[in-house]
Amino acid sequence: MTGIFNRDYKNYFFKRGPGTGGVIGLSVSVVTPQKLFESFGEQALCSAIENFMIEKNLSLFGFVCNVIHMQDAQSEKNIMLYSHHKDSMANTLGELSDVIRRCDILRVKSE
């Protein structure tokens, strides 16, 4: 799975308030997050992501998913974000949403 995590991998520093910040690591996937979980299993995928995040010292890790549907050649873009449960930068979905909304490189689909 490490090969999947390293595909077009980039690190970005983000800041939340004075003196607090973290690093988000993003990789590119050509399959949906659901397909990743189906292929590897939830426990195995989450464990591999946790190990990768420790290795890279990340607060958040994500896949930018760019899926081309073969039947109509339409592109579907999604992002999946994963955080350590104990990380002060991203321990709630509310904080994850705030990080996405404030980040210049990421936008919520409805915004």
Strand order, main sheet: write it out: 1-2-3-4
Largest beta-sheet characterization: 4 strands, mixed
Number of strands: 4
Q: Mean pLDDT score, rounded?
A: 77
Order of helices and strands: HEEHHEEH
Low-confidence stretches: none
Count of separate DSSP helical elements: 4
Give me the CATH fold name. Answer: Diaminopimelate Epimerase, Chain A, domain 1
The coarse overall form would be globular
Gap between N and C termini, in Å? Answer: 32 Å
Level-2 CATH architecture: Roll
Output the radius of gyration: 14 Å
Characterize the structure shown.
Helix content is 33%, strand content 30%. The mean pLDDT is 77. The chain is α+β, with helices and mostly antiparallel strands. Strand 1 (10-15) and strand 2 (21-29) form a beta hairpin. Strands 1-2-3-4 form a four-stranded mixed β-sheet, with helices on one face. The chain has four helices and four strands; from the N terminus they run αββααββα. Helix 2 crosses helix 3. It has a single domain (2-102), classed as DHHA2 domain (Diaminopimelate Epimerase, Chain A, domain 1, Roll), CATH 3.10.310. The chain has helices at 2-5, 33-40, 42-56, 93-102; strands at residues 10-15, 21-29, 60-68, 75-83. It is globular, with a radius of gyration of 14 Å.
